[in-house]
Amino acid sequence: MISLTRPNFLRKALGLCQRRVMESTLKEITNGDSVLDIKDKCGVGGGVEDMYGEDRATEDQTITPWTFSVASGYSLLRDPHYNKGLAFTEAERDAHYLRGLLPPTVSSQELQEKKVMQNLRQYQVPLQRYMAMMDLQERNERLFYKLLIDNVEELLPVVYTPTVGEACQKYGSIFRRPQGLFISLKEKGKILEVLKNWPEKTIQVIVVTDGERILGLGDLGCQGMGIPVGKLSLYTALGGVRPSVCLPITIDVGTNNQKLLDDEFYIGLKQKRATGQEYAELLEEFMSAVKQNYGEKVLIQFEDFANHNAFELLAKYHTTHLVFNDDIQGTASVVLAGLIASLKLLGGTLADHTFLFLGAGEAGTGIAELIALEITKKTSVPLEEARKKIWLVDSKGLIVSSRVESLQHFKQPWAHEHEPLKELLDAVKAIKPTVLIGTSGVGKTFTKEVVEAMASLNPKPLIMALSNPTSQAECTAEEAYTWSKGHAIFASGSPFDPFEFEGRTFVSGQANNAYVFPGFGLGIIMSGTIRVYDDMLLAASEALAAEVTEEDYLKGRIYPPFTNIRKISANIAAAVAAKAYELGLTTRLPRPNDLVKYAESCMYTPVYRTYH
Hints:
The chain is an alpha/beta fold. Helix content is 43%, strand content 9%. Helix 6 packs across helix 11, helix 10 packs across helix 13 and helix 15 (326-346) packs across helix 16. The chloroplastic ME isoform decarboxylates malate shuttled from neighboring mesophyll cells. The CO(2) released is then refixed by ribulose-bisphosphate carboxylase. This pathway eliminates the photorespiratory loss of CO(2) that occurs in most plants.
């Protein structure tokens, strides 16, 4: 019998050959410098030099893919970072031992994209499209991102809200291979070792969840992983952050969802949620391990934590780590941008308007605080005075001063002098708001009577039904336009189709966090910012509002279309970086002269590279 296993000396010879080929290639890329001499400077991926030159190579330059064997291209075809499928050229097929492993046709990336889109459009069920997109991401990374960038308005609802909500609910059934790190109570005391198991060693953005409050769907435990995966896909597609520097993480401390605990296919810990000291110690170990392993400048985005933990984590770590809570800060920045843009339709300044929220959790109070900060910035009135323009309704009714003793700490600043009111409709009639904002996570709560009351009080009522997914929206675009007889300005968290009313077509805006967090993250990374300040969020809001055109206003939109999102993200990144430089929070010096051009140069582009 002939052994097919290579002798040790042959394996060593092949390894030496590989290293010499790589060394030669790297010397070409680095102008003869040793890899060990490469400085940690900004590369095309946004912040850290790409060791193998992949992201610095232009479309017509060649690179050498890191393959496991020089004897077969089989492993290359199964590496999503480098696989091009039928787009491997004849020369590449010869050079990388791909002959016979692919059909003879050589395809272009554009033709591949056309074929995938044709296949996706045949699926009638959104979850099937989601699964097909995830399969593509695991098979061919560059094609996945090119598809998403070129068809962003069509595919954003597939890879993100609302479809990602259903994907999380069924994550245990559709789970195929891990797309991020799972850190559970079993790993307590070993989290640093777990982080080192991740194959990429240079990480710049982490999105982490504990799955307790996934969108408006509640506790989904370990199955919340779909959220970090989806968010980081958007960091790359919309913000141009290299996929290799993005790390999705789910922290599994159990679940209180009995349906999941009883599900034989549930992939997480089958126990009730850990709380108190046990929970705090695990998170403390996690935060310390991240900083130890990845350094001071890794951005940690908290995602879909329950209210009590979300506020506590942000308060605890915002001075010691580079942290950002998208539910509190990202949502607030996006909504504030819509409010600033809407002033061209409503008239006046923010300080001239009265705001009423349904929902007083992390999203509602985060938005309210940023509105108050913007009013203070523009008018110089004290923050406490600015807050008096903003009212919140929670599950027990209008938040008023007589309830202050029983309120959670994050609700207390919004307890104003007023008689108690139980119902939203009564609050609308008493407060007479010009802007109604829903962050309740409860669908159909902006009833016909509520919308009609808003329309009777205002010639152009601004109604924002922000809860996700679509099933949890406080009202639909059709309901808002119909019940207000076409007078409302409407925006929502999830997308709605254009609606025709009395001969006019209304295109509602989508107050989607995806407008802000990708560009915000890029701005932080490219400037080497070490902390997140509220002024940076205000800068992002103002930059986004400036992107709304007269054409958008004529359609009733207070947000720009997503088709221009890469340009929008570059402008937001530049505004955030400019503010960070102004505040003295940056480590990447000197400051570039043109921050917009610099942001564009830092963006990852998913066109295929030529291999040699």
